[in-house]
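fold-stage: in
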Amino acid sequence: MSFVSYGCIDIQTQEVSADNGTENNLSTDMVLGSNHVNYTQTLKKTGILELDNEYSVKVLDINKQSESVYLSFRKDGNEYATSTMFTNRTYNVKDTNGENIIYNIRVDNIPESSFIVNLSYTTYPAIALETGIYEGKQTRTDVKINSDTIIRTYRWEYDNTEFSVEYEYDTESYDSYSERSRNRDFSHFVNDPYDDELISMITGQMAEISEKSGYVRDEIPYIVMAFVQSLPYVSDSVSAGYDEYPRFPFETLYHGGGDCEDSSILLAALLYDMGYGVALVEFPGHMGVGVKGSQVLEGSYYDYAGTRYYYLETTNSGWNVGVIPEEYADLEASVQPVLTSYPQLQVEFSGNARGDGYTGYADLEIKVSNIGSAVAENVVIYSALESTTDNMVWDDHRIDTDSDLDVDGTIEYSIYDLSVPAGERYRVGIRAWGSNTGTEYVYSDWMSF
């Protein structure tokens, strides 16, 4: 008897951290289009940190000995979750439905007094500039192929001004992307750490050439939008041989184009790197970008947890912020804000079962992968032969790996001789989690010896 199973679940946990003090301070890191603002605040026990969109955090307890705080997460003054958070760590906090990250907080330190805790958190700026619709031309690309690299030059227009940028891509690096899983949250494509250097290089060069052409910094995001909109449409089936094959930004730029998913991921990555609040807006069979905008903007937007994400179509030029194509205007859309990177675990297992007439034995081969965009810390793997009685198992095994799992890293583990009495029904259940993740749980069908 043999069995094979795999699974992938969004395992982000609600994470938050606190910062000591009674004052509200802020530091500003300049980004291309606006200010990426990092706030710090000192809170006493029972103190409340008010965030955007009617969300808040209340300090329930401070424990200097364990270097931790116990926090209450609230919306409209009502508690919807609690958690213990430790110092020197940044936590992602989800919305009331537990679906998407809405902000992140870092627990900086707990002073000796133990009566206060220091927190820091980040806000994502909104675009505010209204611009006209510029009917840009399709990006023209020149390609020079060398032995180990290709050089691609992109040319596009915005406001009757021609822009051009040139990048050199390593073909071996491109080939390595083909081995990476596509079965991950879309936000991980946007926040992919292996694309960070390339994305930052692009936004930096675009800012430089935009300012040299006389454009103010608030208009640079629109120049970036025009660049992505003007990239040619390349279907997944043509370029990858699959009907649905979301690409990392590196791959889309390497190809010089992509479909709606690819261009939306690329634009979200560019705007996010510039410090703007962005979301991916998914319709049945289509995807666009939501850009966090100020209330002075006009146009169509999606309200997510009190934040306005103005829609932006990424395929074909001429689409302004806040204009939804007619064929999608009446469809229900899923809005997925892109915030801090986080790990995402995937568990796969296979195995064989054998018995001696009295007892059945299962041998398992387990593979745990991190298909997220941040390191998974202190991964634990728990395996069991589960009983039909709730919360009961016939046999189990736990391993604390004490290992961190890099993005796209894997842990492979073998377990032998998990036992169950002959004739009893059981199923294999595997759980994996880390100190900064939730739990990924997969299981087999019910069976017996």
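fold-stage: in (second)
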Amino acid sequence: MSKSPRPPEPSPSPPLSSRTARAALRNLRSLATDLGTPTRSTEPPFAGGEKRRLRALSYGVVLIFVVQLLPITVTVLANDYGLNGALAGALATAQSAPLLLAVTRPLEAWWIIFAADVLGAVALMAAPGTADRSWPWTPMTVVGYLLLMICLGWREPRRKLVGVWLLTGAAGLLLERLSPSLSDGIHLPLIVFSGVILVLTGALRERRDAQRRLTAQETISEAERAQRTLLEERARIARELHDMVAHHMSVITVQADSAPYRIEGLPDAAREEFTSIATSARESLTEMRRLLVVLRSEGAEGERTPQPGLDRVQQLVEATVRAGVPAELSLAAQLGGVPQAVELSAYRIVQEALANVVRHAPGAPTRVSVTSDGENLTVLVVNGPAVQAISPLETTGTGHGLVGMRERVRLTGGTLDTGPLADGGFRVAARLPLDVKEPA
């Protein structure tokens, strides 16, 4: 009897120390990549300010520091530390001048200044006057470095700031180990102050970025809200027009079905044509009902009353008067043949305008006028200034009023003029063609 092969033993997992070392190495590589990749933005601090003087403040402050630090550093290195004059000038320039670059590119400026500071500390180890003075960092180095930290913290993300702070501390400790007798412990205040500055400026930068993102999101939300409002109004108008179109299609169907019985002596071809017209009309009605289901929002019920027209404008005005707005109506006695779509649009425009008066100008005297010149129906709603105080709740509406007016006017191919008046009132004027055209 043959023995079944034994399953292969699982390979032993690497020891914990090896995994920790690899993870640390990956983090160091990632940190080195971050420190070698500056941010893309080159805007100076406060570049988003509204005042030019505020935007130029960062340049002016850094320039003043550079003008002061450069000659002082040269003098102190040469006279107090006893460093060679040419070397002192080169180190002072490398430690101070890049601060001008730090306004727009702080990470690149940090690499230059950090390298110059370390080289300066190494050079001062052999200078005759170093034993009695600050080392590894000079007081001028500390001042310039802290200013650099402000620029860096305002621009770079948190991970890079941590890397800068760690390298700064590591460089100070390493230099102290190289010559403990020269060190006076100045690297400790530099580590503490630079860390505090990086934390504060980094927090301010993150707060600024959060505000920018919030502003951008609010702008997007406002645009989406306006678009949603427009689509809702269009869907509502389409639902209202459905009844009118369905009525006309029903009339076509009835006429086509009854034509062979009402008209004697029709040829067979004409009967077939009427039958085809009636069939097409019924199919169109079916498709319109499906379209209405799509346009109707969830939970909404179908309209059970006829769509309103100009004969109900008087009721709107009377309801507005009962709401406390002194309104009067001027309605032409003979308006001629007004299409149903135009009647509905005129009624809704008056309704929205009066609703806005009640909400935004309570108690304001209002005039409503509906006239016709045979070619256009003119709707005019003018109100005076509000005579009552407006509560905050009354000023918050859905914002659909003017949007709905514009869409209804566009539907009929007319024009709409709205805006405030010199006396504090408001005017809504719509011109609707009686010969309804396709909307643009």
